[in-house]
């Protein structure tokens, strides 16, 4: 039923399970934005002719609708930003020493990088320390976790930054209890509501937080627009760090005075279309949030219980008291290859670190798969997804038998080019993929001791190392990746490199266009931009040391 409200599904046949990355746009949002662009366009808060007044009215109406959605006391507490990332940076960069009463910044262990890095900068600026609120095994949050967290929130705590719901684990954190304790010790609370806003009732007054932030594109609205909500008294004290037109009330060549919030934080021409589009998203939730929450809850409960009962996968985070986000790993399969297999089956889900590297480190994993549900998803989509996961695990017909990499890999095959013909001849993804998996077995493996940071290829989603291994003394490059597909790709690059060196007139690595070569083989189109960057980094390393 909700699905019909999203034009994307009229033209697309993929199973979209990546709403935590970005949601699909509501038809009403697209229409509002288009109508404004076509018929109503004028700047806001500047000119006074009727069209400009109308634009300002729509912009402020949107602010009021957001205030209503999150139960803000007044609209002026809602600041439009470009998204959650900008909101968090504005808070962290604008905080003045007088606003803080302790020395410690407390961060929840599952925070997104956007809710970690700005605090690291603040800690350096004001000489504060950072302490982490840890989670239980596999990222679970329990009553005991809460008791421990509350005991850590003491008089020395200056600020707590925590997501309302985790973008990796789905965990919903008891923000009201955390903020109550924060108030008792006069600590500021900054809540990242990016993953909560489209999936649950948000009442900033009941939560009792000091700041609450989120992004429009995670709530069926436009990209490039977001919200920083703050208690008015804090917004008055917070320094504006983005300076320019419209945020000032008096300027001389030497100095300026600022407007009152929220305009104080909205320097420059704002994203007017984005803000106005957000109005339609807020209205959508206003009318049917309860039904949306119930629908997602039913889907997620079914999915999480099915997934938790599949032998051979590990599910991370809470499966009760969670938004509709579920992260998991296959226990004894190559997870990267499994993700590629799911993409090829038409599932749009995310594999990687989800901008939460410290969390993944603490879970002892380098990447995981994440399924995230929006109100437009259906039970049959999830049934097909669970079937696909089961198919990947079931040995019959599966190409994903576990391969434990050993140091004694077969030396790289003489480059007769049969592998190359097989890749050129592959007519489907499945065949290309099979060839890559076969090739992955030929990669001369870099031994474990050499898989250290100096040999790590940065920028890849999977962990990747490449070097010449000194004790083999054969001048050959050796590599390793925990992803079998990446090992296959490395093999292709190294085979080609050897082939080039064996020519009558050798071609050195730095003279050869490996990227064009991968494209010729039809391999580059299988990788996301992020993975292409990883491939570029790998090629650069081969060119640097080959
Ligand atoms: N916080 C969380 C929990 C998120 O999931 C995201 C986006 N993945 C962000 C912050 C950053 O949002 P944006 O990129 O829209 O600024």
What report would you give on this structure?
- This protein is α/β, with parallel strands linked by helices.
- It has three domains: 3-20 and 287-377, Aspartate Aminotransferase, domain 1, CATH 3.90.1150.10; 27-284, Type I PLP-dependent aspartate aminotransferase-like (Major domain) (Aspartate Aminotransferase, domain 2); 395-545, Alpha-Beta Complex (Sufe protein. Chain: A).
- The protein is built from 18 helices and 17 strands.
- It has helices at 8-11, 27-40, 50-69, 84-94, 117-126, 143-152, 175-184, 204-207, 232-237, 272-308, 335-344, 357-363, 379-393, 418-425, 429-440, 484-501, 514-520, 529-545, and strands at residues 15-16, 78-81, 104-108, 129-133, 157-163, 188-192, 211-215, 226-230, 248-251, 256-258, 313-316, 325-330, 347-348, 350-352, 368-372, 464-468, 477-481.
- The protein has a seven-stranded mixed sheet, with helices on both faces.
- It starts with 7 loop residues before the first helix and ends with a helix.
- Mean pLDDT is 91; it is low at 397-408.
- The structure holds 4'-deoxy-4'-aminopyridoxal-5'-phosphate.
- 4'-deoxy-4'-aminopyridoxal-5'-phosphate is lined by residues 83-85, 112, 114-115, 163, 167, 192, 194-195, 215, 355.
